[in-house]
Amino acid sequence: MHRLYELAVERSYNTGDIILREEQSADYVFSIRRGYAAMVRLTSDGKRQILAFLFPGDFVGFTSEDNYHYGVSAIAPVNACRFGRAELEALVEKYPVMDRKLRFTLTRAMDASYELLFSLGRKDSLQKVASFIWYVSYRHKKLAQPSNPIHLPMRRSDIADFMGLTIETVSRAFTVLKGMDVIRLRGAYEVEIVDMDRLRSIGVVVAEPAPYERNDPDYYPHKAD
Amino acid sequence: MHRLYELAVERSYNTGDIILREEQSADYVFSIRRGYAAMVRLTSDGKRQILAFLFPGDFVGFTSEDNYHYGVSAIAPVNACRFGRAELEALVEKYPVMDRKLRFTLTRAMDASYELLFSLGRKDSLQKVASFIWYVSYRHKKLAQPSNPIHLPMRRSDIADFMGLTIETVSRAFTVLKGMDVIRLRGAYEVEIVDMDRLRSIGVVVAEPAPYERNDPDYYPHKAD
DNA sequence: CTGCAATCTTGATATACATCAATGGCCGAA
DNA sequence: TTCGGCCATTGATGTATATCAAGATTGCAG
User: Fold this and answer.
1) Is strand D less than 7 A from the beta carbon of B222?
2) Each residue of B67-114: pLDDT tens digit?
3) Cβ separation of A225 and B9 shorter than 8 Å?
4) Among A49, A205, A209, whose Cβ lies nearest the Cβ of B118?
5) Can you give the residue range of the structural domain that contains A34?
6) Are residues A115 and A128 in the same domain?
7) What are the backbone dihedrals phi and psi of residue A14, each rounded to the nearest 5 degrees, phi first?
8) How many domains does chain A have?
């Protein structure tokens, strides 16, 4: 594993700096060491979608195409390690364990991506914002950072572009959550979660036990054949 | 590679059958051999989001959690191979090439997922439906299936639940595209793409060459802390 | 062929969110 | 400390899409 970091180049970025540019040849993979970044995609008419927020420990830059189909920029000062794709693949060839590690990393990114897909497609604005706050708290906890009075490393416009909303709608959702005594704000970036259970119940709207009315459940449970 | 299929169990499913159930223990991985399926997530209030359509050759069932966080059901008669996760991992351990193959498969799924994320967050209904038709045509082409007069294997409600719309809105978008002479319909499931370029230009709204005009050093004014 | 049921289309209305427009609060510079 | 600019918040209005409600096709069963 430390072999990996021998071929890394460490780099620093300030807030707003571009780490990786859309349509650039996909020659590098980055791992975020400190700070926060966002994977960004832009439309021809000036709209923006954030595909993922990157927290310390996250990797970015894997793609099946020749070029990146997204940009990455720092939303707070970032330290990142840059790996050449070719060198990385060579190393992986030598140490097959790496491959499993990378695969697991990708699988986690997939799960996060499906979670967001679900939010974007089928949650209303309040549910989106509630699940977003819950998500940031969760990620901070995983990193052993303060997870209750949390610091949001991103601005309202970033939240909006992540959740498919506008800044105004995000702001109003914060106001509603405050009014419900679910959260409290100390400045726009410090969120105290007063009622974690209620926050979760607003934002995490997955279905209960038996979700598939339509179908004949002949096949479940799949016995070993 | 054929070693892989030695530990597969082949199974058939009819339209509407459940291949894999949400919250089930994630013990299997499936590869679709024939037919079409959908990864589905449901909300507590009865809404549905399709996370991905599965075409022949696609894999499903990898997750970083202990349980699946989505269901999979057949939207047309399906033949699928089922692999035990444990056996698969054991095989991978023995033949490291497999790992790279799986990783690449996952990377492609990621790219597709980001594409959908973008559509859900920032496209209007016409753009969503146009890009959807384009996507199905593209997938058929990759499978060496007819890609111009295309057969849609899914119903309007599936398209709606994939694109975060309602069936009515999807239907209206089809009508608009017909009116623009971009597509022609022969029954609800047969789509002739009359003007592929226009279809693409409506649905694929990625930004042009220099996408980051706004992102001078000053774009995120919340400067270095 | 005929009839029925499912699903798609079309129309009318409601509504959540976007857009437009101030106002207000925080933070860094001087 | 005060000032000025950048964001966030709040308010008023507009609009795209959801919802509610009929019809119109399609395709299957008999």
Assistant:
1) yes
2) 999 999 999 999 999 999 999 999 988 888 888 899 999 999 999 999
3) yes
4) A49
5) 2-120
6) no
7) -95, 165
8) 2
